[in-house]
Design goal:
Length: 255
């Protein structure tokens, strides 16, 4: 390997897909003002699976919404796939989200009038992008959804609905997938299946995933846990375990 190659590989491995610098988010004014994010710095490398954890009201949802371009920070910078989010107008933010971000929500957020397949394809259609059929078929198969694509959400179990949402989030190979309490409405078995799958997608597809969760059991599936309290990152734990996260949450004043 030449020096140039090794430098390029180091840069490639070292680059953040998404990063936040000095991120501040203030809600309200005067006496009722809440500083939901207080100078947050964080970078996320390609192919990593990160959990954002912390007590209720610590700023997890706010951080996720700002990173994903769903909400605007009061000050600070966010760099997503080489683009600065601050200073973008609403249309540019919408386009950036559509083309580079995938979402998985606690409540699945599938359209009830659409089949599983239509739900999966909708974001790509809105973006005017072609679907990679081979990739979609492999996602459908490995998530156990073969034969379910013609069903509407009401004809699917909760676990199946969330797996449809996972295919929808991953199929466009977005720079980042954000998951907001993705196991919140799932039983233990389906939670395990979902978290194992997200872990394998980060490994085999190089998919970068940032997940907000209350579930300390989720810690053992992720590469890294960020523990928030009062809008600040208190701990950045590599290779977390359920125990290490429970201890960190206790120090953070957690649940
Ligand atoms: P978490 O997701 O960790 O529970 P949030 O990010 O939802 O925390 O909230 C962080 C803080 O910001 C809390 O004090 C919350 O009450 C406040 N907050 C969140 N959203 C709003 C809003 N739209 N208006 C005013 N305050 C808000
Ligand atoms: Mg929240």
């Amino acid at each position: 390997m030449t020096n140039t190659q090794s430098i390029n590989q180091t840069i490639g491995q070292g680059a953040d897909v998404i990063s936040a610098a000095h991120l501040v988010k203030i809600y309200g004014e005067g006496d009722t003002q809440v500083r939901a994010l207080d100078r947050v710095n964080a970078g996320f490398k390609k192919g990593t699976f990160t959990a954002i954890m912390g007590p209720s009201g610590s700023g997890k949802s706010t951080l996720m919404h700002c990173l994903a371009g769903l909400d605007r920070a009061t000050s600070g910078q966010i760099l997503l796939g080489g683009s600065h989010l601050e200073g973008m107008d609403d249309n540019a933010l919408t386009t950036l989200r559509r083309d580079h971000v995938g979402f998985i929500f606690q409540s699945f957020n599938l359209l009830p009038t659409h089949t599983a397949k239509e739900n999966i394809l909708l974001p790509l259609e809105l973006a005017g992008r072609k679907v990679d059929k081979v990739f979609m078929a492999s996602l459908v198969k490995s998530l156990g959804l073969t034969g379910r694509l013609g069903h509407r959400p009401s004809q699917l179990s909760g676990g199946e609905q969330q797996r449809v949402a996972v295919v929808r989030a991953l199929v466009g190979r977005p720079a980042v997938v954000f998951a907001d309490e993705p196991t919140g409405a799932l039983d233990t078995r389906n939670s395990h299946h979902l978290l194992s799958y997200l872990r394998s997608a980060s490994r085999t597809e190089g998919q970068t995933i940032i997940m907000v969760t209350h579930d300390t059991k989720a810690a053992s599936y992720v590469d890294r846990a960020l523990i928030l309290s009062d809008g600040q990152i208190r701990e950045d734990i590599p290779s977390p375990t359920e125990d290490s996260v429970i201890t960190a949450m206790r120090f953070a004043g957690g649940e």
